[in-house]
Amino acid sequence: MIQIDETGLPLYALYNNWDIAKSVWTTGRYYRGLVIPAVNYLTKAINRETGLPISSFDLWEERKGVHTYSACTVYAGLKGACELSRSLGDYDNGNGWKDAADRIKESILERLYDDRLKRFRRSLDDPTLDSSVFAVWYFGILPPDDPRVVRTMEAIERELKRPSGGIARYLHDNYFGYMNSWIICTLWLSKWHSAVGNLNRALELLDWCATHAHPAGLMPEQVDDKGRPLSVLPLAWSHSAYVLAVLEYLQALEKRERNTCT
């Protein structure tokens, strides 16, 4: 039950550590033992026919396929690994890894965007609207204001919004009930609104997540249409996504205020 995103994301996380801390020591410590083996696997796991990663299980651990989210995380991992290699002077590997990332990006745009639906598909063989396709802008395939991203995110907000105000995982999800709101999916939408400058809407979604936390401050995995928490409580994924969404909102707010002053 391989999830290929779980190989791409650690590389992306290590790159983000480098981008913030600029610690050559940390990068060097993990370079040969983690980065090189992980990238070697990812580059070998690219299907020559499609230019996308091989079939694997999705982030929801439910279905096997060539998923948009998984492809985006592999792209982000390879691109991050390229920057890590360059920081250590390993330009030969870095250039090859960049080429692999660029091929995946091209294939994502060519094969996973649906011109008829005017949005990104969940996977190569599945057009279902899935909130995880936020990955297209979040992992750098396209900017958040690209028309293809805008149409996709607007479809998520329009078609996956639930009566309680949160966002469901995907159309016709039946896990623990019919299309429950998920904290992380609601936060992904909040992040996008922050990224494109819709800060009032971004804050509304952050407030919704805080309001639907347990009285002890713990965030659940899901919230039903009556506003009751369901499934895992607390869920670390919900909490970490909330922290990131708040930080990204504050960064966007600071940017707007700085631009207003100038």
What would your notes on this structure say?
With 262 residues, the chain is an alpha+beta fold. The radius of gyration is 19 Å and the shape is globular. The strands form 3 sheets. It has a 4-stranded antiparallel β-sheet. A two-stranded antiparallel sheet has the order 1-2. A two-stranded antiparallel ribbon has the order 3-4. The protein is 56% helix and 6% strand. It folds into 2 domains: 1-145, Glycosyltransferase; 160-262. Helix 3 runs antiparallel to helix 4 (91-111). The protein contains 9 helices and 8 strands. The model has no long low-confidence stretch (mean pLDDT 96). The longest helix has 26 residues, at 236-261.
Number of domains: 2
* Name of the level-1 CATH class of the largest domain: Mainly Alpha
Main sheet attributes: strand count, strand direction, barrel closure: 4 strands, antiparallel
User: pLDDT average, as an integer?
Assistant: 96
Strand order of the largest sheet: 5-6-7-8
- CATH architectural category of the largest domain: Alpha/alpha barrel
N-to-C CA distance: 52 Å
Radius of gyration: 19 Å
What is the overall shape?
A: globular
Order of helices and strands: HHEEHHEEHHEEHHEEH
Strand element count: 8
Number of helices: 9
What amount of the residues lies in strands? Answer: 5-15%
Helix content: 55-70%
Category from helices, strands and their pairing: alpha+beta
- Poorly predicted sequence stretches spanning 5 or more consecutive residues: none
Q: What's the CATH topology name of the largest domain?
A: Glycosyltransferase
